[in-house]
Structures are given as C-alpha cells and as structure tokens.
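Lecture 7 notes: from sequence to structure.

We start with a single chain of 222 residues. Read the sequence below before looking at the structure.
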Amino acid sequence: MNHEVFLYNKMAENKKSFLLYADLIHTVNKMPNDKAGELLKHILSYVNDEEPETDDLIIQLTFEPIKQQLKRDLKKYETKKKQWSEAGKRSAEARKKQRTLTTVKKRSTDLTVNDSVNVSVNDNVIKKDIDSRKQDFKKSLFPFLEIYDKELLKEFFEYWTEHGEKDRKFRKEKEKSFNIGLRLKTWFNRQEKWKKEKSSAKKDKITAAEALRNKYGINTNS
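Now the structure, written as tokens:
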C-alpha cells in the first residue's frame, strides 16, 4: 500500500482533536435522528482509527465528503507539524551559534595585550581607532542638523572629541553616561543664555553712556 495513502487513512499519532465544520448541519438536518446519531458515531469511530464499516447507503453517502475533508485537514496538520519541527531546529541551531559567538567574544575580551608589541605601532593603532570612533560620533550628530545649525554642532563635536596625544579615549568616551540629545539641548541653552547676557551687558553699557551724556554733557565717544 502507498505510504501516503496509508497515512491519510489514519489519524495522526497522539492527535487528540479534529475539525468538524459547522455547515455539516445542513446535511444532518435532512437526516432522521437515528441516522444522524449513527453518522456521528461513525465519524468518531473513524477519527479514533477504528476503521468503521457500514452497509447503510445513507451513512456511506453522507460520511464520504466528511472523510475526504478530514484527510485534507490531516494533510495540512502534518505539513504544519513538519514546519514547526524545522523551525524549532533552526531556532535551536541559531541559539547554539549565538552561544558559541558569545563564548569566543568573551575569550577574546579576556586576552591581555602582549607587552612585547612595539610601542610606536601600538600608538598608531590607538590613534587610528580613536579617529574611527570620532567619525562614528560625528555621524551620530547628522540627524540633529535639522534642529541646530552647523556651527553649533561643529563646536560641540570639537569640544567632546578633544583628547591628549597618548589618550586611548576622547572626552565624550570618558563620561559615564552620554545622551547626545540631552547634551546638545544643554549646549544650545547655555549658548542662548550667554548671548542674552552679552546682549544685556552691551545694552547696559549704552544706557550708562547715555546717562553720562545727559547728566554731565560728557561725550563718551571722544
């Protein structure tokens, strides 16, 4: 016997439920109650792999489309079951790879720098690494061009990327926490406050000059 045919003549192993469609009511309502009861028993016997047989033509005719639908549903179930199994295997494999990568990364992190490495070469590597990270920091400022002008962002960048010749980190990296959005907002507010103070000082100076002129007739422009 063909294996696939045999499989779909049987319910799946350990499968405890099956679908019985609501529109079956249209068929059952046309049957005598005793025949409807026999049909239900025949269906339950079939899904429990009891291989029921009947000589009743009414039961045979009404059960056949139900039987074919049960086979189609079982085939869909087996396909889904296979997909779930394959997805589970892929997920397990992905987790295994992630654990391996994490282990390798940890071992790599635990390695110490060999003291015999030439100092000048090491310094070049540090400088190149810092320059690369500074560029990454610069790129992170691009989204704020829509909010702040270029000159402000340039001053902000130059201030926070300052470092000594032998430093392994620039100023921004030495901070315990650094939220670019909040830091820029503070930077902007301080500049605005400084501009207002400068403008106010200039205004006060002009007012004092005018007072001298008005009171004593002193020409402060001379």
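The CA atoms of residues 194 and 200 lie 10 Å apart. Keep this in mind for problem set 3.
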